[in-house]
Write the structure tokens for this entry.
Amino acid sequence: MIKIKKKNAINILSLVILSFYVILAAGSIDNDPPPPPQPCFEDRIYDHCIEKGDDFFELKNYEQSLSYYEEALNIEQNNQKNIYVKSQIAQIYIYKADTFLNDEKYDQAMLDYQKALGIYKEIDKNNKNNPNFIYIQNQMDKIAEIAHDFYEKGNDFFANNNYESAEYYYNEALKIFQSYDPKSYKVQIENQLNEIENKRKQYNEFKNNADTYYENKDYDQADIFYNKALNYASTNPTQQDKINYINNQIDKIDSYKEKYQELVKNGNIEFLDKNYDKAEKDYQQALEIYPKHLKNKEIEEKLNNIETIRQNYQKLYDQIMTIFDDKNNYEKYGYEKEEYYYLEYDKINEIYKEGLNLYPKNSKNNNIAEKINEEYQYLLEKAKKAEQVGSPQSGKFYYERALKLDPDNSNNDDIKLKINKIDNFIDNFQKLINDADNKFKEKDYDMALEKYNTALKQYKYHPKTNDIKAQISEIQKIKEKCQSLINEGKVEYDKMFYNNAKNYYEEALELCPKDDQNEALRNNIFEVEQKITEQWETLLLQWFNEGNKLFENKKYEEAEKCYNDILKFIPELSNSSQYKQQIGIINQQLEIIKSKNNFKKFILSLAMCVLAIVISVVTFIVLNNHF
Amino acid sequence: MISRDKSLVMFTWFDWLGLGNIVSRLRHQFSLEILPDWFIYSLPNGLWTYSLTSVMILIRSQSNQLINLLWILSGLLLSLLFEIGQATKFVRGTFDVVDIFVIIISFILSLFNLVILKKLLLYKKKI
């Protein structure tokens, strides 16, 4: 059973495979109907071909008919029936040509008319009046006329730059004129076709040049060449893409130009507005969009200007930042104290304003403003601290720096009030010092000392604190000296050197004329003066007595001297009523001494005269005796 | 398929199967115009015969029955009938003597395969 089944399976398989192969073989069978009869087999006869040709001719199957006729001609080239066959063939060509003519296939029609004409010329060489001959000639002239119309149309299209249509009509005309050109249009058409080709070449050349310039972003040149190319572009609708492409490119160039102009305009506005970052961005974009624009030199100059401005601004910025950063390095600026370094801050606002004027929209301005604000707050802190430690002058210094650093700060009104307050305080302080100084000059040392001490308490760290302290020290020294003089005076008084005591007291009084102790000192002086008077009185009496004794002893010269001494050294006594008597006596005694002195002078003068007379007489006698 | 005329039935089939474009591209890409005519027109027939005969030998060579011989000869007989049909215009196509020559050579070659196969079977049995 199994064997039978296997056998059946093999049979079925074989059958299936065979069927598959047969189907495959069917694939290689020709679809088309059998081709026209192959060239007549050797056993076909000449007449049979003609017969078949006639049959197909009757059925108006001219292709089949023609093939049979031509086969017949091939079989026997010298048969008499060939004239008939050829005339039939010529007729077929005429029919075909007419059909082509109806279908407007003029070149094929012309070819078939030519073939027909050639056959007629062969079989009827001399009969030009053959109606078929005339018909063919007329038809060919008609086609030539159509070709001429094509040529004219081509010219019209050429004149309108529609080169494709012109070329089409030229070619159509040329196809016809290739086989029949009675008026020799062929050369003209070929020239026109060459002209079209030149135009195309010219177009391609300009377009390629324009594309190259466009790619190189030389839009001016690209624009020129695109416009040139446009002049050579065909207006044919099929070439509209090319025109659209060029117009599109020109539009793009125009848009670049517009964009460029807009960017340059915006850049110029920004430049005038000193918004150099935006101006630079616009200029750079303009350069990028239109790198070969004629005005780019101006833009590059402006970019250079911007760079110069930026560099100058950077210098100012660095200058400000250096001032800020060198806070701890004040010595290099020639300042002994950090405090005075902040005078450098006065320059910052000026530099900042200069920078703002130079480059008002630079982003670094915010950095400077922030830094200024930071330093402003820092100065305020320093001012407050200075005030707190009792140095309002220093506080004022920092407040003033803050004002100069940021004159437009909203806190400045408060700061000005604080400065005014400090100024008032300083004025009051100065008045106090001036009063103290005046008191010092007036030698009112106690008052001066009190004012100086008050000032010191009010203003611990005033710059003139040392001067004040020096003044206080000076006052203290004066007072000490004054006390010392008084003490000396007392010592001299005790020694009964009243004049010395008086001198010391008076010196002390002169030194401290407005001292609290001066009343006592004046009493001391008065007391000393009394003592001195007492001493003088005693001395006067002694001298008077001594003078009298000398007078009594007739020592008039010594007595006179003594009396004169009394009058000289105690002049105030001469007017005193207490000593009138003594002075009267002295004057009397002096008168007496004076008269006695006058008598002496008279005697002496008389003696001198006598002596002179004696000498004169003696001299006369001697001279008289000798001469 | 690449070099044969497109009037063949198989190209209609390709169109039905939607492979017309692919076949056209292949024909366009691999146009073998330099090949001789016998390669294009006769060799396919020979290969067809060779293939069918070889398949039948593989299926039917187990026994020596007469019916098996007929199956093996089927490729040769069908090919020859096809050619005769063309000669008598019973089948569309062009009769060619070269076709018959190639078919017979192909058949002989496939028979040669049968001999080798048999020897191989004997060798296996001996082992």
